[in-house]
Each structure stands twice: as structure tokens, then as C-alpha cells.
From TrEMBL:
Record carries keyword Transcription regulation: no
Protein name: GTP 3',8-cyclase
InterPro entries registered for this protein in UniProt: Aldolase_TIM, Elp3/MiaA/NifB-like_rSAM, MoaA, MoaA-like, MoaA_NifB_PqqE_Fe-S-bd_CS, MoaA_twitch, MoCo_biosynth_MoaA/MoaC, rSAM
Residue ranges occupied by any Radical SAM core domain in the UniProt entry: 8-223
Subunit structure and binding partners: Monomer and homodimer.
Residues bound to [4Fe-4S] cluster 2: C258, C261, C275
Binding residues annotated for [4Fe-4S] cluster 1, in chain numbering: C24, C28, C31
Gene expressing this chain: moaA
UniProtKB keywords: 4Fe-4S, GTP-binding, Iron, Iron-sulfur, Lyase, Metal-binding, Molybdenum cofactor biosynthesis, Nucleotide-binding, S-adenosyl-L-methionine
Gene3D superfamilies the record matches: Aldolase class I
Binding sites annotated in the UniProt record for GTP: R17, R67, T98, K159, R263, L264, R265
Catalytic activity: GTP + AH2 + S-adenosyl-L-methionine = (8S)-3',8-cyclo-7,8-dihydroguanosine 5'-triphosphate + 5'-deoxyadenosine + L-methionine + A + H(+)
Alphabetized SMART domains for the sequence: Elp3 (SM00729)
Length: 334
């Protein structure tokens, strides 16, 4: 029997999120400060060859699904080359990308040809001026063009990530739900998380995703659970009666999904994170080339993976059992 990445709580890990850069061409309010970020120099980032070697080892341990993240992954030059390398690894079945959509439209065909299977595009507002404020300068037209490009090259499902923020974009919930009625997309509402925040701003903006279902009912829409959306993530999926698309709720705080967590993360500088929220990290770079040592490192990471992330405790100002990370979301890869 081959070894598999099973932790002490019996969770099987077949999904790896790989950050390819901590840099981004935007400065979204929930992800990065407007200024003052210090980025890793290029020589500290894992090379495409190093990433491929790690994934090759993990494929032998049962990893089947990959997601490339950042920062903004398309800031990394020649990302198509990495996707092509990863798609050739025996056992890898799915390669997805999370992007802000600014650069995606012009590269969609090359990414698809290289082996990209799915895409998630961030879209936190449907209003051009508000979108620019949230992203600190983003052009919504380029993002909408990228959604069309993803349709055109045959990527499916297309998921749109919406970080819901009280007093900022919660008045657009109905507009996003209407979008799922009219178009074959999945809108994923995501709760605002305290990743890398040392202040209480996120608490003031936090809104539980039960609000989405309440707004749906107020509009008279009947939403039923839907299991037809393919993906690796933790969303609770719904489809409004007669809708072409669907919507998902990712609520790590109000209804955390840790008991079914199947994912590990590698940061752009080569640190394995067993949990998004906690500070524990294991640097894999010095072990690359020694398959047994890489395997051992990932099993050590799994050995300390906690049962849950305790973000709800942070919201309530309660004591926590571990040390939360000080890395920003862009430095982790989400």
C-alpha cells in the first residue's frame, strides 16, 4: 500500500495550493496594505523546476489536484511553462488558477493549451468605481473581459470570488445572485478572514454568510443545495431555481470547514503551511532532490496540523491554542 497524506484526524490531503509569487499588481483592502509591503527577491522564490519536483513527490503520496495562487500568479513570468510541466506529472488530474483577472484575458488560450483546467477570478464588486476602490486601482472591464475569455477557451466551471465586507459591498449580494441566474458561473461568497491582521478592522467589516441566504429569501428566490459544481474547495453550494449558474458560501468563521480540510500550502519562498491561519511553517527547499526527505517533511507538517483554525475565537477576542500568522494573505497564497 502506498503512503498517503493522512493526518492524525484522518483527513486525506489530495490537494495542494502553490503560491508562485507574493507580488501583485493590485492592493485589495482585505489582502495587502496600500504601501509598505516587502516582497521576496526573485532568487528566494522556488523555481519552476523545484516546484515540479515537489509536486512529483507528492503525486506519489496521493496529491491529485493543484491550485496556483499568489499574490497574483500571472505576475510571475512564463507561468504557462510551469503549468505545462505540472500537467505532465503522472497522477495530477486538475490544475486550477486563482487570479484577479487583470492579465488573464490576453493569456487565456496559452494557459488552457498548457494544461490549465479551471480558473477562479476575484470580483468583489460589479460597480466600476467601487471595484477600483476595493482593489486600489483595478479596472473592472479587464476582469469582465477575462471572464469572457475563460468561457471562450472552455474552462469550466468558472468561479468568481467575492469577499463579503459589511458596509462596503454587502448591498450587491442580490446583484451577484442575479448574475448566477443569468449566466453559467459560480459566485462564491467568502467571509472576511483575519489573515495577517493585527487590528480590528476586519471585525468591523465581517459579515456572516447567513446574510446571503436571507437576502435570497427576501427576493423570493428558492435556493436548493447543489452538489453539481466541481471543485476542491470548501464551499457550500446552492442553485436558485431556474438559474444557469450557482453560488457557494465559504464561511471559515461562522461555520468553519476544518473537519473536511484536504489541502496543504506551499508559499512562494518554499514554506509548507499545514494550516492557513497558524504560523507553523516548514521550509522544503533544502530537501528538494531527496524524495524521502521531502516526504518526511510533509508528514511532519501533517503531524502538527491542528483540528481547526479557531478564527471564530479571534472574532470573539477569546484565547487561542496556537499563534496566528503575521503573513498577509498575498504572502501565503490563500
Amino acid at each position: 500500500m502506498p503512503k498517503l497524506l493522512v493526518d492524525r484526524f484522518g483527513r486525506m490531503h489530495d490537494y495542494l495550493r502553490i503560491s508562485v509569487t507574493d507580488r501583485c499588481n493590485l492592493r485589495c483592502v482585505y489582502c495587502m496594505p496600500e504601501e509598505g509591503m516587502e516582497f521576496e527577491p526573485e532568487e528566494r522564490l522556488l523555481t519552476f523546476e523545484e516546484i515540479t519536483e515537489v509536486v512529483r513527490v507528492l503525486a506519489g503520496l496521493g496529491v491529485r489536484k493543484l491550485r496556483l495562487t499568489g499574490g497574483e500568479p500571472l505576475v510571475r513570468k512564463n507561468l504557462e511553462q510551469l503549468i505545462g510541466m505540472l500537467s505532465q506529472i503522472p497522477g495530477i488530474e486538475d490544475i486550477a488558477l486563482t487570479t484577479n483577472g487583470i492579465y488573464f484575458a490576453s493569456r487565456a488560450e496559452k494557459l488552457r493549451a498548457a494544461g490549465l483546467t479551471r480558473v477562479n477570478i476575484s470580483l468583489d464588486s460589479l460597480k466600476a468605481d467601487r471595484f477600483s476602490l476595493i482593489t486600489r486601482g483595478g479596472d473592472i472591464r479587464r476582469v469582465l473581459d477575462s471572464i469572457e475569455a475563460a468561457h471562450r477557451v472552455g474552462l469550466s466551471p468558472i468561479k468568481l470570488n467575492v469577499v463579503l465586507m459589511k458596509g462596503i459591498n454587502d448591498d450587491e449580494i442580490e446583484d451577484f445572485l442575479q448574475m448566477t441566474i443569468d449566466r453559467p458561473v459560480q459566485v462564491r461568497f467568502i467571509e472576511y478572514m483575519p489573515i495577517g491582521h493585527q487590528d480590528d478592522i476586519w471585525k468591523n467589516r465581517y459579515l456572516p454568510l447567513s446574510t446571503v441566504l436571507e437576502r435570497c429569501a427576501e427576493k423570493g428566490w428558492t435556493a436548493a443545495p447543489s452538489e453539481s459544481v466541481y471543485g476542491n474547495g470548501p464551499s457550500q453550494n446552492f442553485r436558485i431555481e431556474g438559474a444557469l449558474g450557482s453560488f457557494g458560501l465559504i464561511h471559515p468563521i461562522s461555520d468553519h470547514f476544518c473537519e473536511t480540510c484536504n489541502r496543504l500550502r506551499i508559499t512562494a519562498d518554499g514554506n509548507v503551511k499545514p494550516c492557513l491561519y497558524w504560523s507553523d511553517e516548514f521550509n522544503v527547499r533544502k530537501y528538494i532532490g531527496d524524495d524521502a526527505a521531502v516526504e518526511d517533511l510533509f508528514f511532519r507538517a501533517l503531524d502538527i496540523k491542528p483540528q481547526n483554525h479557531e478564527m471564530a475565537e479571534a472574532l470573539m477576542n477569546q484565547d487561542q491554542s496556537h499563534t496566528p500568522t503575521l503573513r498577509r494573505m498575498s504572502q501565503i497564497g490563500g
